[in-house]
Every structure is written in structure tokens, then in C-alpha cells.
Amino acid sequence: MKIEVTEQVKAKLQKYLNEDKRILLDLDDGFGHLSDEGTCALLTKFRIIAVDSDEDLSDYTVHLDSNIGTIYFKDSAKDFLDDGMSLKVDPKTQLIIFSNSKEIIDKSVNVIDYDLVK
């Protein structure tokens, strides 16, 4: 699977795009050691998480090809995988949008540096 990352999103992620970091597109569903357990609600919330390259990624078995390298994705979020996936910036709000060819999945994807929240 492939996901397009626009130049605007690439600029927002630039400080994490190196060999010491991995980029995750995380559905915050309460599953896995990086999810905020108990905060899942009846909404779909994705986060871009930058983690160290030696982080345990066993929950992230899906690898998405992109123009910024591999983006790791949870198997439990496979229902959102589809053709035409993209991460782009909303020109009005400057928030990151995750979408596919059928729908906007999340209009406000947060970027989290996992090293700062450990």
C-alpha cells in the first residue's frame, strides 16, 4: 500500500525524517503500548507519532510506502486502508488531514514526538 504525503506535511515532519526515527500513523484506539488507553471514543482519531528507530513496532505490522519513507500502521486499523490515501494540510486550518479516495478519515491529525511524552 502507498500513501501520499504532501510537501506541506513533509515540512511539518522534517525534524523527524532521519534514520534515528520511525513515523507511525496511529489509530488511537486504546490498543497497543503507544495508545492512550481509555481515551477512545465514538470518533476516529489518528495521530502521527515519531518514535526512536529501536522502538518496539510489533503493533504496527502494516508498512505503507510513501515519499518520506516507510510509515508504520496498525493491523487493527486496516479498515481505513484504501486507494488514494494521503496526508495533506488544510489550507484554512493548517491541520493535517488523513483521507483516501472515498472519504476524509480525520481532519485534525496531531503530530507527537514520543520521546517528549515518555
What is shown here, in short?
This protein has 2 helices and 8 strands, in the order E-H-E-E-E-E-E-E-E-H. It is mainly beta and 118 residues long.
Would you spell out the secondary-structure blueprint of this structure?
Blueprint (H helix, E strand, L loop, with lengths): L2 E3 L1 H7 L7 E7 L18 E7 L9 E3 L6 E3 L11 E5 L6 E4 L4 E10 H4 L1
Parallel strand pairs: 1-6, 2-5, 3-8
Antiparallel strand pairs: 2-3, 4-5, 6-7, 7-8
Q: Give the neighbour order of strands across the main sheet.
A: 1-6-7-8-3-2-5-4
* Share of helix, binned: under 10%
- Count, helices: 2
Overall tally of structural domains: 1
Topology, number of strands: 8
What characteristic shape results from the CA principal axes? globular
How much is the radius of gyration in Å? 13 Å
Structure classification: mainly beta
At CATH level 2, the architecture is Sandwich
CATH topology: Hypothetical Protein Aq_1857, Chain: A
Query: Beta fraction of the residues?
Result: 35-45%
- CATH C-level name: Mainly Beta
Low-pLDDT parts are none
* Helix-strand topology string: EHEEEEEEEH
Spatial separation of the terminal alpha carbons? 30 Å
Q: What is the H level of CATH, i.e. the homologous superfamily?
A: HesB-like domain
Mean pLDDT across residues: 89
Largest sheet geometry: 8 strands, mixed
